[in-house]
Amino acid sequence: MRIDGAAGDERRVEPARAAIVRAATELFLAHGFQATGTDRIAAAAAVSKQTVYNQFGDKRSLFAAVVLGVTATAEAYGAELTATLGAVERREDVGPALRRLAHRWASAVLGPNVLAVRRLVVAEAARFPELAAEYHRRAPGATLRTVADGLARLAGRGLVEVDDPERTASDLAFLLFGAELDRALFHPDAPGPDERRIDELVDHALRVVGLG
Amino acid sequence: MRIDGAAGDERRVEPARAAIVRAATELFLAHGFQATGTDRIAAAAAVSKQTVYNQFGDKRSLFAAVVLGVTATAEAYGAELTATLGAVERREDVGPALRRLAHRWASAVLGPNVLAVRRLVVAEAARFPELAAEYHRRAPGATLRTVADGLARLAGRGLVEVDDPERTASDLAFLLFGAELDRALFHPDAPGPDERRIDELVDHALRVVGLG
Amino acid sequence: MRIDGAAGDERRVEPARAAIVRAATELFLAHGFQATGTDRIAAAAAVSKQTVYNQFGDKRSLFAAVVLGVTATAEAYGAELTATLGAVERREDVGPALRRLAHRWASAVLGPNVLAVRRLVVAEAARFPELAAEYHRRAPGATLRTVADGLARLAGRGLVEVDDPERTASDLAFLLFGAELDRALFHPDAPGPDERRIDELVDHALRVVGLG
Amino acid sequence: MRIDGAAGDERRVEPARAAIVRAATELFLAHGFQATGTDRIAAAAAVSKQTVYNQFGDKRSLFAAVVLGVTATAEAYGAELTATLGAVERREDVGPALRRLAHRWASAVLGPNVLAVRRLVVAEAARFPELAAEYHRRAPGATLRTVADGLARLAGRGLVEVDDPERTASDLAFLLFGAELDRALFHPDAPGPDERRIDELVDHALRVVGLG
DNA sequence: AATGAATGAGTATTCATTCAT
DNA sequence: TATGAATGAATACTCATTCAT
């Protein structure tokens, strides 16, 4: 039996490839693709520049690895988001569950990490069109589909009335965080909404969309 | 870098300065800020590089002039947008007028020009935070306020029921084009929605927001 | 009337482009194409690296300019080579004239300058196939054709018996300097043949080819 | 850098060393010395880069091994070339035997392999002067001497009249393939002469040199 | 003897900006 | 005000060679 101290050993021998992705993710998110030199990535990963090129071939491929790596966490998160809906049994539990879901959703999308990734990918969309499309499909798209599925299941069990779950999910999304998201894209330094503001957004959006 | 936009001397027709702004606008929108060299701007404006620097000081100020120049047309457009609401006299005219307004609004926001500007400004928001904020205030913000004012006037005349015009305008906006706008940011080459799709978006958004 | 001190002024204001070609020619001939960095070329021309790129676009184009520039002098030289044949009037003048021509020819081809150019172009023939072919056509090819023409004119005037002037010129050439040329390509540092050796080569070649 | 060529240990079959030389020969001939990286050599030999360095010390020594390895086959070939002359008994057999010899000689020298080696060695002559000289001595030089010896033996037996066998061999060589060889150096992609052309070259060269 | 990574200098090329004419 | 060149730092990427495992 191995206790497997992987977590503990990561300080010592983090595999080069992972270290590069981590460093590049941080730097790309902080300064953008173009403004981040390969020298600095290598230095931040405590790795030689040559190793970067051995592992990724060129800077573009490294960028793709970074962006797709980020989507992996987004995908995992999406499923967790709607798990709360599964436990709903009675009509009066629906409201609180939806409020929790909406709150988490807005918090995540308007959190600094997701905003930074969106800015990064949008900024490079012209130079990486396929990557941008793939990101959109995998991250916000997947979450939207997951929420729509959750609504459809609730509707199937008669706990909620939703004609078009995809559209309702989309309406909910953009009523929730559309304005804030748009604002945030243009205000990279401004802090996101606080908890009270999110609560207020949640109540309003659910009401408008007919789920409140 | 100066963000003062249109200065007082512009009444004297200065072809050089205008030509530079026009050429730079085109190139920045097409290829982005970083990928557009000053050489090419000067060449496209049929002007010497020195003239570019005499007129604008540096590339950043030229960028600011370009972005703020674009907002001028956006501001002019905003007022025109809600003019149709002013002519409304009877309750049964409200629906068609709102539909026309929403259609124009969505068409403009989802048109290639506005999308290109948004991508450009978002891409450079980290390097030009004040400019990005200013753009957001002047272009989408101004339009939103204008629409809110229009709704408020209608409500004041009893033609429509709107509690919070600002919020209603915002909800309408993001129900209308939130999803499409988000999609477009990540798909720089994809064509925008066609007329039928916009009609459908308009009907849906107005209904959800209680104005349809 | 202008005395035109072009020659005297060349120290002061040699046009950038010419200076670059001169420096690049010298360096390419001395160290080869790949081993000569653009930095050094710019430094040797007392010119900024940017000027090199403004003038020639890239290193390959500069190389082409160098090689073709060299052929210009080769072409001019070819005509001068056979001028001596034009003055021949009597049968007994033919021998000395041909000997002079052959001597000059061998001296030129086996001189350090021509050898260096040949090595340079051959070394890069794989990377610049069209340029190498063009060089061969313009420099040794042109000289060969000029000599053949000279022989044909002599034959036309009955001063010499030559059936196939092209072939005779070619035979003469490679009997004259074929072996030495081959040797020199593989001995970049060895001195060329001295005058006596060239005289001997000339006598032998003319005899074998039937013109001695 | 060592220029000692085949060392004593080669009787023990060392697949690694041989594989490296073979791969390097192929790559150097195809792309030149500078354009061939050690990574690719190691990969093509299915060997680690470290093994390359263990076996050869550095890239220059590997290059020397490659070039001298090639000369080994050239030397073996030279003797075979003149074997046909040994069988000549009568005066009327001399002509056909010389024609066969000349044909084989020209075919070999103008074949793609020999041309590629010549280009390679000439291209690097400035950086490897001793190696280039050694190659010239061992490959074309040895063949020339062998042919001269063959002519001398024929002359000694009264089958042919040759005053200076070395010079006659040299004249024959450059009348045969001097022009084609020169052309080929500058036309790396052009195909060599076909059989008929070689026959024609042989007849002409033997006639001019007085052996036809 | 092999592997993956490190090293560190080097490559061509581009950029925004400024100077002299 | 226009032109051509200068500046000087920065870019991504490659190379031969060596070290540790």
From TrEMBL, chains A, B, C, D:
It comes from the Bacteria. InterPro entries: Homeodomain-like_sf, HTH-type_TetR-like_transc_reg, HTH_TetR, Tet_transcr_reg_TetR-rel_C_sf, TetR_C_Proteobacteria. Residues 14-74 form the HTH tetR-type domain. The keyword DNA-binding applies. SUPFAM superfamilies: Homeodomain-like, Tetracyclin repressor-like, C-terminal domain. This is TetR/AcrR family transcriptional regulator. Residues 37-56 bind DNA. Keywords: DNA-binding. It holds the Pfam family TetR_N.
